[in-house]
Design brief:
The complex is a heterodimer of chains A (420) and B (168). Chain A folds into 2 domains: 258 residues, 2-Layer Sandwich (Aconitase, domain 3), CATH 3.30.499.10; 148 residues, Aconitase, domain 3 (2-Layer Sandwich), CATH 3.30.499. In chain A, 30% of the residues lie in helices and 18% in strands. Chain A contains 14 helices and 18 strands. A 5-stranded parallel beta sheet of chain A has the order 4-3-2-5-6. In chain A, strands 16-15-14-17-18 form a 5-stranded parallel beta sheet. In chain A, helix 2 packs across helix 5, helix 11 packs across helix 13 and helix 11 packs parallel to helix 14. Chain A is globular. Chain B has a single domain, classed as Aconitase, domain 4 (Alpha-Beta Barrel). Chain B has a 7-stranded mixed beta sheet. Chain B starts with a strand and ends with a helix. The chains are: A alpha/beta (420), B alpha/beta (168). Chains A and B meet through helix 2, helix 3 and helix 5 of A and helix 5 and helix 8 of B.
Chain lengths: 420, 168
């Protein structure tokens, strides 16, 4: 029976020859992830489970990233709980301020996730690791605690939707544009409970970072997971980072998909998702005259080095519009250092932008760029829900780093061509 | 689940109610659950925390609980006294979290279509039979997979794990 890459990874972790959509299976996990927010519930529930140790202290990652460096006393206390948990249970992969970054940028970068592995994380954007050919999905804190105790979890095998992107991408078109376009086509529950498999010429042309961005937002279509079958680019990215054996899976050519979407993306414009759903995607030329107060470049979706390079290429020698605050947040310490050495910080600061230490901060309305009533932001983050970045009357427009940088210069939402 | 039957008034919402609306991220660093619950649904329905009474039932359209993985979403509803959520469909992480923490969730498009704010509902949580006492109608929710019923019967995921590891 032909199988998809997702079905093969799940079968391997369930110790079965094959699984099919709808099966409920128990799977071994290669890594369990929690952060400073979800670590709170994971800690509390883990301690009720009647176990004295975690299943494997090398297969748990605790990354403090949401409200750190601690934004207030409550967050300081919250981080302390995860810090204590890491110490008490000997968690090897514990990442604190100054040695960390945003979890979903950090884990692939540090080689903590590999193709063919199965990862669950108490954060919905855990789906990101499909970008390197892993199966990964988000769960709540109690599920993460249970997996830390047992080394396994239960999953319903998802149906797979296949997305084939034909054609050549334009100069400023990135994984972000492709995924916003996709969500715009199928809606915020278009992939509910399903695996999204991204393939085609345009995906092969994307960098691994761009693929991580695409899989990152599978959850915004309701997806259980997103995945790009590994190729030579994947292996080039992974080999220097992962110091253990891993297995590369591919979908069989005649694998069964619930649905196949095929789009020619030649000539696709940069995409912008209007408030208040990621599915409100329109080409940037159709946004109209939308003035902005803030531009945020960063997050687990778009805070990698490639994203900062694109933004810097547009901002070089330019000035941020006087009515706009530009906030740039490198996603990890390594990205931070690299951007610094490449002179990108000079570009951002000379343009009148602020550069922050790695944090999820503004994306979820935590801190480091909260919006006042009626304010409007263009953002490279992943959600534009009501109140997501601040006051419930504020608005978030989602776009690529190129559009966010160009808009910061123009003071209204525009594509890069308009400012170059 | 301890209670086989729940009973309360309907709070009625639309589709794609995301977890940021159920509990905004700005309150996720409040460690005291009762204090945290005073902000439940406030960006969608500012009156909710004041109006909700023990037993009340949230009824919504498709994709309830989409977005973030925060378990606080079902937990806040439960802490406020919400006894069940009935929706046309649920986002998968919310659904899982609700089962894990023991907040009963049911899928029934017919029950949702008929329900209006303030209607009185009674739900048999074991069978998924939903009675709208105000309308005098009865609906059958979609049955849950056997595996999930096992977690519910155990009393939630913590108890399920305790049984698995043989904890006393």
């Amino acid at each position: 029976m032909p199988r998809t890459i997702t079905e093969k990874i799940l079968a391997a972790h369930a110790g079965r020859d094959a699984v099919k959509p709808g099966d409920i299976i128990t799977v071994k996990v290669d890594l369990v992830l929690v952060n400073d927010i979800t670590g709170l519930i994971a800690d509390r529930e883990f301690r009720k489970m009647g176990v004295t140790k975690v299943f494997d202290p090398t297969k748990i990652a605790i990354v403090l990233d949401h409200f750190v460096p601690a934004k207030d006393m409550a967050s300081a206390e919250q981080s302390r709980i995860s810090r204590r948990f890491a110490q008490e249970f000997g968690i090897v992969n514990f990442y604190d301020v100054g040695r960390a970054g945003i979890e979903h940028a950090l884990l692939p970068e540090q080689g903590l996730v590999a193709p063919g592995e199965l990862i669950i994380g108490a954060d919905s954007h855990t789906v990101t690791y499909g970008g390197i050919g892993a199966f990964s999905t988000g769960v709540g804190g109690t599920d993460a605690a249970a997996a830390m105790a047992l080394g396994e979890t239960w999953l319903r095998v998802p149906e797979t939707l296949k997305f084939v992107f034909q054609g050549k991408l334009g100069k400023w078109i990135t994984g972000k544009d492709l995924v916003l376009y996709t969500i715009g086509q199928i809606g915020v529950e278009g992939a509910r409970y399903k695996a999204m498999e991204f393939t085609g010429e345009a995906i092969q042309d994307l960098s691994v970072e761009g693929r991580l961005t695409m899989c990152n937002m599978a959850i915004e279509a309701g997806g259980k997971s997103g995945i790009v079958p590994p190729d030579e680019k994947t292996l080039e990215y992974v080999r220097p980072r992962v110091r253990r054996e891993f297995k590369v899976y591919q979908s069989d050519p005649d694998a069964r998909y619930e649905q196949v979407f095929e789009w020619d993306v030649t000539g696709l414009e940069p995409q912008v998702s209007l408030p208040h759903l990621p599915s409100n995607a329109v080409p940037v030329s159709k946004v109209g005259d939308v003035k902005i107060d803030q531009s945020v470049i960063g997050s687990c979706t778009n805070g990698r080095i490639e994203d900062l390079r694109v933004a810097a290429a547009i901002l070089k020698g330019q000035r941020v519009h006087p009515d706009v605050r530009l906030i740039v947040i490198p996603a990890t310490q390594d990205v931070y250092k690299q951007a610094m050495h490449e002179g990108l910080f000079d570009v951002f600061v000379d343009a009148g932008g602020a550069v922050s230490a790695p944090t999820c901060g503004p994306c979820l309305g935590g801190y480091m760029g909260i919006l006042a009533a009626g304010e409007r932001a263009i953002s490279t983050t992943n959600r534009n829900f009501v109140g997501r970045m601040g006051d419930r009357s504020s608005e978030v427009y989602l776009a690529s780093p190129a559009v966010a940088a160009a808009s910061a210069i123009a003071g209204r939402i525009v594509g890069p061509e308009e400012v170059l | 689940m301890a209670e086989m039957q729940v009973h309360g008034r309907v709070f009625r919402y639309g589709k794609d109610v995301n977890t940021d609306l159920i509990i905004p991220a700005r309150y996720l660093n409040i460690i005291d659950v009762k204090e945290q619950a005073t902000h439940t649904m406030e960006d969608l329905d500012p009156e909710f925390p004041r109006k909700v009474r023990p037993g009340d039932i949230v009824v919504a359209e498709e994709n309830y609980g989409c977005g973030s993985s925060r378990e606080e979403a079902p937990l806040m509803l439960k802490t406020c006294g919400v006894s069940a959520v009935v929706a046309k469909s649920f986002a998968r992480i919310f659904f899982r979290n609700a089962i894990n923490i023991g907040l009963p969730v049911f899928e029934s498009a017919a029950a949702v279509d008929a329900a209006q704010a303030g209607d009185e509902l009674e739900i048999d949580t074991a069978s998924g039979l939903i009675r709208n006492l105000t309308k005098g109608q009865t609906y059958q929710a979609a049955p849950l997979p056997e595996f999930i019923q096992g977690i519910i019967r155990a009393g939630g995921l913590v108890e399920y794990v305790r049984a698995r590891v043989g904890a006393k």
